[in-house]
Amino acid sequence: MKNVTGARCTLCGHVTEALPGTTVCPECGGILDIEYDYDYIRSKLTKYDLMDREEPGMWRYMEFLPVEGIGNRPRLRVGGSPLYRASGLEKKLGLKTLYIKDDGLNPTASLKDRASAMAVVKAEEAGKTTIACSSTGNAASSLAGNAACAGLSTYIFVPSRAPKGKVAQLLMFGATVVLVEGSYEDTFRISAEAIDRWGWYNRNAAINPYLMEGKKTVSLEIAEQLGFKMPDYVAVSVGDGCTVAGVWKGFKDLYEAGFIDRLPRIISVQAEGCCPINTAAAAHTMNWVPQEENTLADSIAVGVPRNPVKALRAIEESHGVTVNVSDEEILDAMRILGREAGVFAEPAGAAGTAGLVKALDTGLIEKDASVVSIVTGNGLKDVSNAIRAAGEPLSIAPDMDKLLEAFEKKGIKP
Amino acid sequence: MKNVTGARCTLCGHVTEALPGTTVCPECGGILDIEYDYDYIRSKLTKYDLMDREEPGMWRYMEFLPVEGIGNRPRLRVGGSPLYRASGLEKKLGLKTLYIKDDGLNPTASLKDRASAMAVVKAEEAGKTTIACSSTGNAASSLAGNAACAGLSTYIFVPSRAPKGKVAQLLMFGATVVLVEGSYEDTFRISAEAIDRWGWYNRNAAINPYLMEGKKTVSLEIAEQLGFKMPDYVAVSVGDGCTVAGVWKGFKDLYEAGFIDRLPRIISVQAEGCCPINTAAAAHTMNWVPQEENTLADSIAVGVPRNPVKALRAIEESHGVTVNVSDEEILDAMRILGREAGVFAEPAGAAGTAGLVKALDTGLIEKDASVVSIVTGNGLKDVSNAIRAAGEPLSIAPDMDKLLEAFEKKGIKP
Question: Are B218 and B78 in contact (CB under 8 A)?
Answer without folding.
Answer: no
